[in-house]
Design a protein that fits this description.
InterPro entries: AAA+_ATPase, AAA_lid_fung, ATPase_AAA_core, DUF7025, P-loop_NTPase. GO terms for molecular function: ATP binding; ATP hydrolysis activity. Pfam families: AAA, AAA_lid_13, DUF7025. By secondary structure, the protein is α+β, with helices and mostly antiparallel strands. It folds into four domains: about 180 residues, no CATH class; about 180 residues, no CATH class; about 150 residues, Rossmann fold, CATH 3.40.50.300; about 110 residues, no CATH class. It is built from 22 helices and 28 strands. Helix 17 runs parallel beside helix 20 and helix 20 crosses helix 21. The longest helix is centred in the last third of the chain and has 22 residues. It is elongated and about 145 Å long. The N terminus is likely disordered.
C-alpha cells in the first residue's frame, strides 16, 4: 500500500505580524517551504520535511546536495551521462529546484505525490566542479528532461488518498494526498547534447566520419549532434573495412562512443540494419548509407562513375549533399572534388522502402558484382593509355551518329595540352612517380579513374572525348601489304625501305637531323593502289597513318607552313606514317608568273628538309611536278593502270575477304548476309574482264552486298552483274559526253603517260 502522509496541525506563537502560524508537518517528502497568504483567512501555512534524527543517514533525495560525492554508474566505460531535470517552478512545482543534475535516469518513485519533483537517485551537487574533477571520461552526454511535462503525462498514474477531515486544510497541500502505487516510467528526454572532452577522440571522429574538427568540437549544436548517430552507424556497420582509417588507440576510444550510440539508438539501428540487409532503404535511413571513404556509384552520360566520399552529408535533408572525389587526368593524375546531390524520388513516400540500387547515387557495395568488375577493367585500360596509346574505337552505333569504318585514335593527353596551351591544366600531381610503374596502383585506384579520355581521331583530325570501355586494342592487318596487287620487285623494295627505316634511327646525312626521313612518291592513275599502299605500309610497320590532303592544308603559304609543321610534329611524336594524298598542288613546277604557287612549293620543300619519319606522297599528275623534288624522293614508284591479271587478283582478294557470311549494320544491329563464295570464284574471269580500277571494284563489292542484304538473298554473281552494268553505263555516258576517256585526256595533257 502507498504510504499515507501523516500530518498534524500545530499552532506556534505569533510571528512578526502577531498572527498565529499553523504548521502542517508532512513526512516522507522533500523539504519544501511554501508561504501563502489568503486575503480572507490571512493564514500562513508552512510545510517542511522533518530533519533526520541525529546519528542517522539521510535518504538520497533531490535536495540532499552536500551529503556525498556521486559515483558514476559502473557500466559507464570512458563516458558520463548527465541527466538534467528542468522545472518551471509554477503551480505545484513552486517548491522544486529550477535545474538539478543526476547520474541516473530520472523518474517518480513509488509513494511520490503530485508535489514530488522528477529526479534520480544519484544527484550531482556541483556539476561544474564535478566535471572538472573527471579525468578518465572522454565524452559527456547531457540529457534534459522537463519536470512539468513528465507530471502532465503521469496524472493518471496517481491514486487519491483519504483527505483529512480538518476543514481548515489549505488547498495548496491537497496535491500531497495523491500517491504513486508503483514507480513511474523513466522520463523521456526532451533533448540530448554531447561534449567531447578527449582531443584524441575528436581526431578519431574526424578520421572515421569525415566531420571537421570544428564540427566535432561543437558537437552540442543540433545539426552536428543529429548527424553523429548516422555517421557512427555507418562506421559501426563496416568497422572492419574502416579499421585502416584509425590507429589502435583511436579505435579503442571510438568504440566506447559507438557502443553508447548503439544502446541509445538501438531501435533505429536495428530498423536500418533490417532494411539495408535486404537491399532496401527509406528516406529516414538514407543518410546512413554514406560514410567517410565509402565508394559511391553514380552514372554520368550513360557511364558508371565511382567516387570516394570525403565529406558525408551534413544534414539528412532532401536532397542529400555529398562531397566526394575521384581521379582526373591531364597528363598527371590528380584528385578532383565534386559536390553531388542525391534526391529522394519525388513519387515515392518517405516511409516506403525502395531498392538501394534504384537511387541515382548509392554505395558501390550494393551494386551487382559485374559493376565493380566493369569499373576495374575500364580503369586498367585507362592506365594503359596514360602515356600514349594507339587504339581502335568501337562505340555502339546511334541513329544520329555516322561511324567511319575501323576508326583509330591516338590517346595522348600530354600532347593535347602541349597543342592547346589555353586548355585548363591543373599543376597538381597526387600520384607522383607511381605513374611510371608498369602495374596499376592497388586498391580502389582503378575504380576511381574517369570514364572518358581525350583521343585524336586520324579520320577527321579532331580531338574527342572517348568512352574508355569502347577502346579496343588494334587488330593489325599485317597481311595487307602482301595482298597488294603490284609488281613483286616494287613491293619488295618498298617493304625493305620501310622495315629498315623503322628498325634504325641512325642518320646517314652529313648534317645531323637533316634528311633522315623516308620520303616516297607513289604516282599513277586513280584507283591503282597508291593510297592502299600507304595504308598497308602503316599496318606493316604497326604505325598510325596520318593522312593529309591539300584540302586540309589550304593554299596560303604562311598557313600551309604552320599546318605542315604541326602535322610533321605529330608524325614525329607518334611515329606516324604521314600520307600527303593528292599532293599535286605542292609538286607542280614553279612559274615566274605565279608567285603564290612558287611560295607554296618553297615552303613545302623547306618543311620536308628536316622531317625524320616516313612520308608518302601520292600524285596522278607526275608530268607537271617540279624538278627540285626529284632529289627529295628516296623512291618513286609508278602505278600503271590495272590489267586483267591485276583486276583478277583484286577481285579474288575481295571475294576471299567476304567469307561465307558478312555482317551488315541494319537498324542499329548487325545482320548477316550469306555469300556464295564458290559461285563468285567461278565468275572471276568475267568480273576481271570489265575495265574497273581498284576503287571501283571495292565500291562494286560493297554495293552488291548491300543489294543482297536488302533483298534478303544470298550474295552471288547476279548482284555483281547488276551493279557493274550500272557503273559501266555511267562510264560510257561520260566518255560519250566528253569525247574521250580519262586516260586519253591525261595523256593528251601530259599529266601522265
Amino acid at each position: 500500500m502507498s504510504r499515507r502522509p501523516r500530518y498534524s496541525p500545530e499552532t506556534s506563537p505569533e510571528r512578526d505580524s502577531g498572527r498565529p502560524v499553523r504548521r502542517y508537518i508532512i513526512e516522507n517528502e522533500p523539504e519544501i517551504v511554501h508561504s501563502n497568504t489568503s486575503d480572507e483567512e490571512e493564514e500562513e501555512v508552512i510545510i517542511r520535511r522533518r530533519s533526520p534524527r541525529p546519528g542517522t543517514k539521510p535518504k538520497s533525495r533531490a535536495y540532499h546536495t552536500d551529503y556525498f560525492l556521486p559515483v558514476p554508474p559502473r557500466d559507464a566505460q570512458g563516458h558520463l551521462v548527465v541527466y538534467h531535470v528542468d522545472c518551471s517552478l509554477k503551480g505545484t512545482h513552486k517548491a522544486h529546484e529550477k535545474t538539478l543534475a543526476y547520474l541516473d535516469h530520472p523518474r517518480l518513485y513509488k509513494g511520490d505525490s503530485k508535489m514530488s519533483a522528477l529526479r534520480g537517485k544519484s544527484p550531482i551537487p556541483h556539476l561544474s566542479d564535478y566535471l572538472y574533477r573527471i579525468e578518465d571520461h572522454i565524452f559527456v552526454v547531457n540529457k534534459r528532461f522537463n519536470c512539468n511535462a513528465y507530471h502532465s503525462e503521469a496524472l493518471e498514474l496517481f491514486d487519491p488518498l483519504p483527505m483529512p477531515k480538518d476543514p481548515e486544510v489549505p488547498h495548496s497541500i491537497q496535491p500531497y494526498f495523491f500517491s504513486l502505487r508503483h514507480h513511474g516510467p523513466l522520463a523521456i528526454a526532451s533533448s540530448e547534447t554531447m561534449a567531447i572532452l578527449s582531443d584524441p577522440l575528436k581526431e578519431a571522429i574526424v578520421e572515421a566520419t569525415g566531420m571537421t574538427y570544428k564540427q566535432v568540437s561543437n558537437i552540442d549544436k543540433s545539426q552536428n549532434m543529429n548527424m553523429l548517430p548516422h555517421l557512427l552507424y555507418h562506421y559501426r556497420r563496416y568497422a572492419d573495412e574502416q579499421a585502416s582509417l584509425l590507429n589502435p588507440a583511436q579505435r579503442h576510444l571510438l568504440n566506447d562512443l559507438v557502443d553508447y550510440m548503439k544502446r541509445s539508438n538501438d531501435a533505429d539501428y536495428c530498423e536500418a540494419d533490417e532494411l539495408i540487409s535486404q537491399g532496401l532503404i527509406t528516406q529516414k535511413h538514407l543518410v546512413k548509407l554514406f560514410g567517410r571513404n565509402e565508394l559511391l556509384l553514380s552514372h554520368e552520360h550513360g557511364h558508371p562513375r565511382a567516387y570516394t566520399i570525403d565529406q558525408p552529408p551534413k544534414t539528412g535533408d532532401d536532397p542529400l549533399s555529398l562531397t566526394a572525389w575521384a581521379w582526373e587526368f591531364n597528363g598527371l593524375f590528380y584528385k578532383e572534388n565534386s559536390h553531388l546531390l542525391l534526391h529522394w524520388p519525388s513519387s515515392v513516400p518517405d516511409d516506403k522502402p525502395i531498392p538501394i540500387t534504384s537511387l541515382s547515387k548509392y554505395p558501390l557495395r550494393h551494386a551487382p558484382p559485374e559493376t565493380e568488375r566493369r569499373l576495374r577493367a575500364r580503369g586498367e585500360l585507362f592506365w594503359k593509355c596514360r602515356k600514349g596509346y594507339y587504339v581502335s574505337y568501337d562505340p555502339p552505333n546511334t541513329a544520329l551518329e555516322i561511324q567511319s569504318g575501323n576508326p583509330r585514335y591516338m590517346i595522348d593527353v600530354r600532347t593535347y595540352h602541349q597543342m592547346h596551351t589555353k586548355a585548363k591544366l591543373s599543376p597538381q600531381d597526387d600520384l607522383g612517380d607511381a605513374i611510371n610503374d608498369p602495374q596499376i596502383p592497388d586498391g580502389p585506384f582503378a575504380l576511381l579513374l574517369p570514364p572518358t579520355i581525350l583521343g585524336f581521331g586520324f579520320n577527321d583530325k579532331k580531338w574527342r572525348s572517348l568512352a574508355v570501355e569502347h577502346i579496343k586494342k588494334i587488330n593489325w592487318n599485317e597481311e595487307a601489304f602482301d595482298r597488294l596487287v603490284m609488281q613483286h620487285h616494287k613491293k619488295e623494295l618498298i617493304k625493305a625501305l620501310v622495315t629498315v627505316h623503322t628498325a634504325s634511327d641512325k642518320s646517314t646525312d652529313i648534317i645531323e637531323g637533316k634528311g633522315n626521313a623516308l620520303i616516297m612518291l607513289l604516282h599513277g592513275g586513280p584507283g591503282t593502289g597508291k593510297t592502299l599502299t600507304a595504308e598497308s605500309v602503316a599496318e606493316l610497320t604497326l604505325k598510325p597513318l596520318y593522312r593529309v590532303t591539300c584540302g586540309d592544308i589550304g593554299t596560303n603559304p604562311d598557313e600551309v607552313e604552320k599546318y605542315l609543321e604541326s602535322v610533321l610534329l605529330i608524325g614525329t611524336i607518334w611515329g606516324c606514317v604521314v600520307l600527303l594524298d593528292e599532293a599535286d598542288v605542292f609538286l607542280e613546277e614553279r612559274r615566274e608568273t605565279d608567285l603564290q604557287r612558287n611560295a607554296l612549293v618553297s615552303v613545302f620543300l623547306r618543311v620536308l628538309e628536316y622531317y625524320d619519319g616516313i612520308l608518302i606522297l601520292t600524285s596522278n599528275r607526275i608530268g607537271t611536278f617540279d624538278s627540285a623534288f626529284k632529289s627529295r624522293f628516296q623512291l618513286a614508284v609508278h602505278y600503271p593502270a590495272l590489267d586483267v591479271a591485276g583486276r583478277y587478283e583484286i577481285w579474288l582478294n575481295f571475294i576471299n575477304g567476304l567469307g561465307t557470311s558478312k555482317a551488315i549494320p541494319s537498324g542499329g544491329k548487325l545482320k548477316s548476309t550469306h555469300v556464295n563464295v564458290d559461285g563468285l570464284k567461278e565468275k572471276i574471269d568475267q568480273l576481271a574482264a570489265v575495265e574497273l580500277n581498284g576503287r571501283q571494284i571495292r565500291n562494286t563489292v560493297r554495293t552488291a552486298l548491300q543489294l543482297a542484304h536488302f533483298r534478303e538473298e544470298t550474295l552471288d554473281y547476279r548482284h555483281f552483274d547488276r551493279v557493274i552494268k550500272v557503273v559501266d553505263e555511267f562510264e560510257r555516258h561520260i566518255d560519250a559526253t566528253r569525247g574521250f576517256s580519262d586516260s586519253d585526256w591525261a595523256q593528251h595533257q601530259g599529266v601522265r603517260p
